[in-house]
């Protein structure tokens, strides 16, 4: 089985947005390890991201986190990025690190805190205007740790009210994507715990509000590709936050924990039109490289998405549907698995080279000397992490 | 803390529907144990159910399963039930035990099988007309065991088409409730795996289509009371299938595995208006008494719901909201737990007696000699189980 | 990367025992589907198993279930199997389908029931003497559904006493393997729920008592390859029951739900000496083919184990250890994944042919006409299932 | 049902060790909230802990964390504590916050890092000599995030070697307890992930090495009371780290998430002799008060343990065993639940008063003005948290 010309065309336009914060330090509540060469500024983060794109051709856009990536002049930052061949992408709001948000932000019982949180999001839209970003991504840490602590029901209504105000501020070409998460940092209830809640909240807003699906934000055992299929069917899959997990929101490299799951997800994306030319779906990484090299980790990640997309595009859908309709379980599964088991790496390497990219992006990056350069150069200052 | 007069009024109108199949044998794929006195006919099941109501005053309605409880004349069965002081309740369809449904029913790729499954549901509505039942409950075993086996996306559309036809057959006073389930009997994908899917499917039908929440049908760790609150907010919580679980769909006695969870659920029911006079929520049991006495198991179950409802009604909601608004986590949690820890059993026993019911329903049932009677009487014939 | 000569030698001696019951009907508590051609007798099951071996060369042994596969003369059955080129393997006891075992077998509080259960196992050893089987496999359904129902602590002591008596009956060349299971059919506690319990019980018996690891019998998220490594280190991994799962004990085809997990397991088997010439580890399937063709399902299963073994043997362990010692996370992971992603299927097909086996065992089986033969031949009688 | 005199005697000698770090700030990887009055020094932590004991009479001992609680003179610290009526308890080692431990400590492939980690533990024993502590608690963050990253098998052997050296340093009256954890901070494999691993490691050391069971460190659905029963049976339950969880290692207040589970655990403790006069079991809290008042949270925690112990002691064990032996599932469960549902709070309040303690410890603490005092007093300096 080889990758078809049609599939290569689809792969040629594939873009995976990388998160600025992946290049900074991250960790667990137990320890954040620092590493030589870690960026101190958003510019350095963008430079690192540009390396990923340079060697893969897959990642021309960097998502920003506000206020972690706050600068005085976002227009200037845009120019800086463009100078590196990069675009600025999704703006990620942050209402979980201010003391005021201890008991919630857009859902807080205190109108003053809600006001503050809404205003923060309005500022994010201002940033979007300057950066040319299309999407505002809202992930809320809002929730509670103890039964009785919060009024679950009322908070849904407050959330709706807050979102309406933010949604109304969006420009015609701008969108809001609302992320859901099963748990953490809240340990009893989350205000947006599942796709159903995100869906009903964005459906109440309008066409430009959509769901963001983070692959690590589900209960154990959840069939994620089903949700992908359902949201595409409903026209409400706005974006992916790709990563992988063995246990909880582990934020490992996408495809690392369960490559077959990534394949199944990409297959439903293909089936549901998510890789079409006019797809509404933004593909993004949202990962933490706690112990591994960050830039290599990002390169590995976008390649994993590319490789599994290629495998998903290999599925012989006509034969599959025939087997499905015939009730031929083993036949259908066999066709599906055949695509998954096909080693597309050599073909992709060759194709990459034909497009002026390195056959082996990781080797090319290692050989480039970039790492030695930043380790020598980035001495002193405060390494970026989740706190800044 | 004692139960208020207002709370007692609410408890006085509480009704929990019992399932006919709980009185028959059930088990696991490994073994179904039979027990002396098990009903052979639907009439015997209703007689057993009447015992639960007799001693508790809580369970005047029996849900039927079609075709397990099929009789020639459902009007006659209705009269039989009424003669025992019982009503016939929700009609449960069954599209999982016919060989034709091996690969689906309402979602099957073959139009002939879908036709058969739709017709089965139309027959169920005929039964409802005869029994005076309000609700048609649809639980689908539809799904697949292997990736690639089924076309997940298309099946959602087929499900919608099938449901439309069934919904259109409903009378003005009849409703459809669509149950969701995380897994089993399908082990890769279920066509209605979560509340979100059930919600979007019933929302596309109309006002008389609602969600049925079975407390055992969620992924590990799911915050069920959140879903209860959300569905009540959306006006789409049609009914509960009560039971409890430690692992999967264990179908244990409601409140047995996690009494505190039942308390939290009942609290959200109270908050969301689910115990109001005009509540749209039907409270039902859906359990299996694999190893325990079935009638005692059912009595225990309705009492558990009553006791946890009483505790939920004990919560000092004014004080709670004050503590919540003040960010007093321990205070709010303390108020909540205080209600849970209050032993309402003696008060309820006394109140039960004041209404002409036994203080101890299980003791009264045991003392009644009913069990000895049915063990002696029900000799020969085929004991009812899931197969019939 | 190609499979080394040394690896092919290891693969050449690989044997995967198949379970007689996989050829009979199986299902869930909701429905057992029957299929044309299903065996009615143990002889027919062995004939089907012989097909798997014929086309793969991987499965020369059939495990029996007692009393499902009870015959008057097990010596004769042995000859029958040998006539088909098959051996009789592990004897699986059954103490979960007799009414007496409702509340336990080897752990029952009633000495008479324990006696009965012990005697059953002694009979199993008699069968082993006749069949030449090495292993007695004990899986216990013992447990309870409700807190308080059983005396968890005392039952561990009773289990020990019962096992001692069975162990003492074993011949010098016979072994006992004790399986553990997280839940089902008991839904509150299982008497042997985890590898720790199985280990402490068999360690208290002696060298010929070992643990049986069923890949579907763990809590969600459990790192199974860790347990494999640990048990091999302790010298107590007696056997595998291979299957796969998305949710609970789904009993799907091994490698179907998570091929990468199977790869990781086989890698630890290789590392721990489990594929050495004198390995104490018996590799067995224990699966249910509820909706798929059973013989094809079995062929697919043994091929999956073979393919993942081949991939595991591809891992460049020297390079891996070097990367591990250097703290090169991405490098080590890359070496590991490289082996997993390598498509060994063509190489294996060629090698299979070189050994006189079909390149494509499933195609060969389908082309053989065996299925048409048994469908025409096996008419009437009672199809085998878990009940018989 | 009232608490028996015998039960009150048991309760009178109950002690629950509190962790020094519970009084400092804690949080998630997303945010650590600070609060006025948080201790800056270990002395201030001990002062706070003394408040818990003062109002409950339950918590005379404080566990220390090394090096978080490092002081120049631990003998002096011991005197300080004694001056407040407190003892110093378990010493908790820390090999997860030094950069050297990025890839492991006692299991690290580099002998120099293992040496450093072993030496750290030997220092901990020095501290124990000075503080008079009996127990050294070892919890290891050791593990890996990616398949292939680490040599799972070899690390078990290295762990054994490291533990031997530490064990050999212990005095005759000192013990080692080895904690296990399912996941976090490592997300692929943990070197001590389950009770089985902790058990085989400590069993290989000797009598003074035991298992530490943290109630939040298990896979979803794990029956913890079974493990409690098993470890008590094996004589290897050294200590509890109490807390509660809805999802992962949430570190909520013990009994907060599932009070019934705490009851079941305490019942097995009672049954297994864990509350006997000479119990080897140390009862400790290990919790994080991320959003709630820390001292009140600790008071609530020890009271929860006391209340559930009282309920567990209420179980009519004779009647229960009779029902168990009779196979009376509902009867046995009813006896068990009766104890759980009995509201012991008023009885305990009265008994507390009879012993010179406040009926309502939380109210007494609030009324004491201690909080206002520390908030005014502890201004400036660095609030203690996990980092120091």
UniProtKB/TrEMBL annotation, chains A, B, C, D:
The keyword Isomerase applies. The keyword S-adenosyl-L-methionine does not apply. One of its GO terms (biological process) is rhamnose catabolic process. It comes from the Bacteria. Keywords: Isomerase, Manganese, Metal-binding. It is an enzyme of class 5 (isomerase). InterPro entries: L-rhamnose_isomerase, Rhamnose_iso-rel, Xyl_isomerase-like_sf. One of its GO terms (molecular function) is metal ion binding. Its EC number is 5.3.1.14. PANTHER family: L-RHAMNOSE ISOMERASE (PTHR30268:SF0). NCBIfam families: RhaI_grampos. This is L-rhamnose isomerase. It comes from Tessaracoccus antarcticus.
């Amino acid at each position: 089985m080889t990758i078809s010309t049609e599939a290569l065309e689809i792969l040629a336009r594939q873009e995976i947005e990388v998160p600025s914060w992946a290049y900074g330090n991250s960790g667990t509540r137990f320890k954040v390890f620092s590493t030589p060469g870690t960026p101190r500024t958003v510019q350095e983060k963008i430079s690192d991201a540009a390396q990923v794109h340079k060697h893969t051709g897959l990642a021309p856009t960097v998502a920003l986190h506000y206020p972690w990536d706050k600068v005085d002049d976002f227009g200037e930052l845009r120019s800086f990025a463009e100078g590196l061949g990069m675009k600025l992408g999704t703006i990620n709001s942050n209402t979980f690190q201010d003391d005021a948000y201890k008991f919630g932000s857009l859902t807080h019982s205190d109108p003053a805190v809600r006001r503050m949180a809404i205003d923060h999001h309005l500022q994010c839209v201002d940033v979007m205007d300057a950066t040319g970003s299309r999407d505002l991504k809202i992930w809320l840490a809002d929730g509670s740790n103890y039964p009785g602590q919060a009024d679950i029901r009322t908070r849904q209504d407050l959330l709706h009210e807050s979102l309406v105000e933010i949604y109304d501020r969006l420009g015609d070409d701008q969108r809001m994507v609302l992320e859901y998460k099963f748990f953490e940092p809240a340990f009893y209830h989350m205000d947006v715990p599942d796709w159903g809640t995100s869906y009903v909240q964005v459906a109440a807003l309008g066409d430009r509000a959509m769901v963001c699906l983070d692959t690590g934000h589900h209960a154990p055992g959840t069939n994620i590709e089903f949700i992908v299929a359902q949201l595409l069917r409903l026209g409400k899959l706005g974006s992916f936050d790709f990563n992988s997990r063995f246990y909880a929101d582990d934020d490992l490299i996408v495809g690392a924990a369960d490559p077959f799951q990534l394949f199944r997800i990409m297959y439903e994306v293909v089936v549901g039109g998510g890789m079409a030319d006019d797809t509404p779906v933004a593909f993004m990484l949202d990962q933490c490289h706690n112990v591994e090299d960050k830039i290599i980790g990002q390169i590995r990640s976008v390649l994993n998405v590319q490789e599994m997309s290629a495998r998903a595009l290999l599925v012989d859908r006509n034969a599959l549907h025939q087997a499905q309709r015939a009730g031929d379980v083993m036949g259908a599964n066999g066709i599906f698995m055949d695509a998954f088991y096909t080693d597309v790496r050599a073909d992709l390497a060759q194709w990459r080279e034909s497009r002026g990219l390195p056959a082996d992006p990781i080797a090319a990056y290692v050989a480039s000397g970039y790492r030695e350069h930043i380790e020598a150069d980035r001495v002193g200052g405060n390494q970026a992490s989740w706190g800044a």
